[in-house]
Design a protein that fits this description.
By secondary structure, this protein is α/β, with parallel strands linked by helices. Helices cover 54% and strands 11% of the residues. The chain is built from 17 helices and five strands. A five-stranded mixed β-sheet has the order 2-1-3-5-4. The protein starts with a helix and ends with a helix. GO terms for molecular function: dol-P-Man:Man(7)GlcNAc(2)-PP-Dol alpha-1,6-mannosyltransferase activity.
Length: 426
């Protein structure tokens, strides 16, 4: 998202050229700023932007908008040097390793050495057939609005300036086997801007004929439907972070002794589903908030966390003996005597319920769970949803319903081989 800000501002600079085409110096400055921002963000934040800046540079050069000496070299060198100065100096200090350029290391490891495929492989058309339609959400965007903007003479040139380099970037990035929507999210503002031009052209002609009137109504309806779908997907996506929920439960809803140092291990799935540094407890007051909350009993105990994936360590029984708690997807891989004190469920798909079928519970804890059943905003929303489901299903939908499938994702395990098992309140 840091890089997204710079890439969107750079695309804005490309459009700012049109009102000042009579001023050659001002036009050159806009193009230079656009390429500088893209280069800087690629060096500091996300290496894949190097492909985007390359596609935009080649397009502008091929259409004779820029020259090598006046735009490409100054913008490229400035973005590269200032970006390296910021990234290498700051990251080397915090990682205590000099010189360190994180984006180059990630690019070299994933792209040049080809390790990105280890994270999964998608077909070459994934971005075009799956990622972009999901990012744009509204199908009218790419089925109606974008073609309209490209066919309309008044908006064709500006639209091509955004569409061509953006699609070239997506096409080039499709050559890599590992694909994720976040790698191409930078083109969404460009596509949305072009779609907005097409939508505006249709809307301003809504009173001229029945066809334009119908298309305008379709635009309004599609926006409302997209908003509803986005809201529903937002609610569903909140169920994709069982790791973060498990860590919050471990910190705040499970009883711990005061004055003890607790050791916790996070497995791979927990780290991928919400466990972050922001949720970890400090080893002592480190911020103003920590000092203000110094009277809180939780601040009297310290925590140490481990996320190692060393296969030799994970097969060593003495390694596991050091931990008081483990957040694990598969408890059978954790060596030793462990008690599953709580299970966190996560989203696992959608299920169509027929008349007479009962919906599954969104989550439930094992019988030996030590987590108190305290009321929460999430529980209140769940109860309200159950009431709404009962009313709609029985009165309107005649027993049919669509529900979410929830499956056990993360287990909170307590070490039964040491004192940790005696600390948990029952």
């Amino acid at each position: 998202m840091f890089a997204f800000f710079f890439s969107t501002t750079a695309l804005k600079c490309l459009l700012d050229v049109y009102p000042i085409q009579w001023n050659g110096i001002a036009v050159t400055k806009r193009y230079r700023l656009a390429l500088y921002l893209l280069t800087f963000s690629g060096v500091v934040f996300r290496s894949e932007i190097a492909i985007l800046v390359s596609s935009i540079t080649f397009y502008l050069f091929a259409t004779r908008r820029i020259s090598i000496t006046s735009v490409i070299v100054p913008a490229g060198l400035a973005g590269l040097l200032i970006g390296l100065l910021c990234s290498v100096s700051i990251d080397s200090f915090f990682w205590q390793s000099f010189p360190l350029w994180p984006e180059w290391i990630g690019f070299y490891y994933n792209t040049i050495q080809g390790h990105s495929a280890e994270w999964g492989v998608s077909p070459w058309h994934f971005y075009f057939s799956n990622a972009l339609p999901r990012l744009l959400m509204n199908p009218i965007t790419y089925l109606l609005c974008i073609p309209t903007a490209l066919l309309n003479a008044a908006s064709r040139r500006q639209s091509l300036d955004l569409i061509v380099p953006s699609m070239a970037f997506v096409g080039l990035y499709s050559l890599l086997p590992h694909k994720e929507w976040r790698f191409i999210v930078y083109v969404v503002p460009a596509l949305t801007a072009v779609a907005a031009a097409g939508a505006s052209w249709i809307w301003t002609r809504r009173a001229k004929s029945v066809i334009y009137s119908t298309l305008s109504l379709a635009l309004v309806g599609s926006v409302l439907l997209s908003f509803t779908a986005s809201t529903a997907l937002l609610a569903i996506s909140s169920l994709n972070y069982p790791g973060g929920e498990a860590l919050d439960i471990l910190h705040n809803k499970i009883g711990h002794p005061e004055g003890h140092h607790l050791y916790v291990y996070f497995d791979n799935l927990a780290c991928q589903t919400g466990v972050t540094r922001f949720l970890e407890r400090h080893d002592g007051p480190q911020t103003i908030i920590d000092v203000l909350e110094a009277q809180n009993t939780t601040s009297q105990r310290t925590w140490t966390y481990s996320k190692t994936e060393d296969p030799q360590a994970l097969l060593d029984p003495t390694f596991w003996f050091n931990f008081d708690y483990v957040l694990a997807e598969r408890p059978e891989k954790v060596i030793g005597s462990w008690d599953a004190i709580h299970t966190v469920y996560g989203y696992s798909g959608v299920r169509l319920l027929r008349p007479g079928e009962k919906s599954e519970k969104a989550s439930e804890s094992p019988n030996n769970s030590t987590v108190p059943a305290t009321p929460s905003a999430k529980a209140t929303i769940a109860q309200a949803w159950e009431v709404a489901e009962s009313m709609l299903r029985n009165t309107v939908l005649r027993g049919w319903w669509v529900t979410l499938r929830m499956e056990p994702k993360i287990r909170i395990l307590a070490n039964g081989m040491n004192e940790a098992g005696e600390w948990i309140e029952t």
